[in-house]
Amino acid sequence: MRRIRTRTVALGVALVAAVPLALTAPAAAAPATDSTVEEGRLTQAAPQEILRRSGFEVWEREFARGLARVTSYPEARRYVADEGRALWRRAVDRAQGRGPDGGDLSRDDDRPLYWARLGMTKELRQWKPEFGLSEDRRDALLGSLERGSRGQDSIALPAGKEVLRVVVTGFDPFQLDADARRSNPSGAVALALDGTTVRTASGKPARIETAVFPVRWADFAAGTVERTLLPHFRGGPRQADLFTTVSQGRPGRFDVERTNGAWRGGYPDNARDSRTELVPIPAGVPTVRPQPQWTTTTLPYAKIVAAGTGPYPVVDHTAVTEIPAGGGAPVDRPDGPTPGSTARAGGGGDYLSNEIAYRATLLRDAVRPAIPGGHLHTPVLEFGPDNTDPANGQVTDPVFVRNRIAITGQVRAVVTVAASEVAAAARAADRK
C-alpha cells in the first residue's frame, strides 16, 4: 500500500542489538471516546451496503449483545479475544468458499472484515459495564480485538522438515475519505491464502499463514509489526522459511521492492494522522544498531520477475529517493541508494507499505538474516470504467471483482515461485 511514489536500494548493516521483546499493546487510533475517525465512516452508505450484502452487518449487533451479558473483566478478556478470532475465521472461511456467502457480494472481498471490525471496536469503545472499566483495561480489550480479528495472534506454522513455512501479510483498505468503496487487494490476498498450502516445483508443500495490518502510523510506532512477526522469525521448529509483506502499489504492475527506507513521509493515514520522521523502533525489539537508513529484500526477485506468474508484469523495482552523503536536497536514484545517504523514500515510497517492509526486513536482519523476505506491491485495484465516481458508483462491479481475483491468483503464484527457490536451496545445502 503506497501513496503513489516509488524508490529502492541495497546496503550493508551494522551491529545487532537483540533485546528481549516487551511491547505494550498496539496504540489505538484515538482515545477511548465515542468513536474514532475510522468508526465515524461506518454511517456512510457504501460501508453499510458492503456489510449488508456480505452478511457481516450482524457482527456489530451480536457483539454488543454479548458484551451486555459480560459481568467481569476476566470474562470480558475471554469474550473479546474469542470474538475477534471468530471474526477473522469467518472472513477467511467466506473468502475460501466455506460456510454461507451471506449475500451477493463476491466471496473474495476484504471489505466486510474491515467494516465489521470497526463496528465491533465502536461498540467496545462505548461499552459501560456495571463492574466499571478503566481506560487502560478498555485499551487492552481493544488491542485484543484488533489482533484477533486481523489474524495476528493466530499464525500457526506447522513443525517439521517436510513442509516449508511461509508468512504473508496484507493491509486494510485506505484513502477512504476519497472513496469509502475502496478495497485493498493485499487484504484480499491475506484472506484467500491463510492456512492454505501450495506445491513447490519439487513437490514439497509450503504452508502459508497470513495477517492483516491497520493503515495507522500510531500502531506501527507501538510495535504491531514486530509483535506479530518476531515469534515466527526466531529459531525453532516452527520458524518461518520465507515471508513477504504485501500492499497495493502502482497501476497495472507488480513490484518486488528491492530497498526499503527508514523515513515516514507524512501522508495521512486512516485515522487522518500524519507523521514525518525517522521510522521509530519501539523499545524492547531486537534490532540493528545503529539504525540503518536502508534495508534490502532477500526475496529471489530475479526468479520472480522471470517466472511469468500471471497477467500483470512483475518489476524488479530499484529506485529510491535519498539525501546524498554530505546533505542537500532529496535526489531520485533509479538504481538504489548511494553510500552514506539518508532515506527519504524506499522502493515502496514513504508511506506504511514502505514502513512494513522496512520493519520486517530490519527485524529479519536482527534475528535471522538468512530468511528470504521482502515486500511485494500489487497493482492498484480499480473499478470498472463506468463505475469510477464514488458519488454515484456501485460498491462492486464485474471488472473490479475480476481484477481482485487476478491479483490474488498472481500473488499465490509469486509466493509459489519464491517457495520453490527456498526449497531448491535447502535441497542443495542438504547434498553438501
From TrEMBL:
Asked whether the keyword Lipid metabolism is assigned, the reply is no
Which keywords does UniProt give here?
Signal
**InterPro entries according to UniProt:** Peptidase_C15-like_sf
Instruction: Indicate yes or no for the key word Transferase.
Output: no
Task: Please list where the region (Disordered) is annotated.
Answer: 326-348
- Specify the domain of life of the species encoding this protein: Bacteria
Residues of the signal peptide: 1-29
Q: Spell out the protein name for this chain.
A: Pyroglutamyl peptidase
The protein's organism comes out as Streptomyces platensis
